[in-house]
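Progress report, Aim 2. The chain analyzed during this reporting quarter is listed below.
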Amino acid sequence: MEFFKKRYPDSKEVDKKDIVYSKSVKAGKRIYYLDVKQSRNEEWYLAITESKRNVHDNGPGAAPEVSFEKHKIFLYPEDMQRFTDCLMDMIGFIRQNQPQLFEKYVNREEESLESAENEPYKPIDFSLDDFE
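Predicted structure tokens for the chain:
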């Protein structure tokens, strides 16, 4: 069913609360899920979820307790342009003021970071024109 939703997003078979399209990024103890979802009025929006794995030590002899902390952001079409502009500005600020730090992490990710689907991570270069 998931393949069907990704392959045919305009189909009436897609439940209104279901994910239309999804990608994930594995980053250490965190996984970021980016899901395109459909609202009740059939408009699509972006749901970003950060899931962080927490391991709690229960003392000697006791099994550790594992839990997941989740945070969600819902980004609606009317806010996407302003959000993207702000995000690009923040990334530019980091590049300009701490280029060595930014390059250190970008290079590490290019070499070793994999997505949750086990595909090699490849950073993309895009402009706002790509979304029009």
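The longest strand covers residues 44-56. The longest helix spans residues 77-97. These observations will guide the mutagenesis work planned for the next reporting period.
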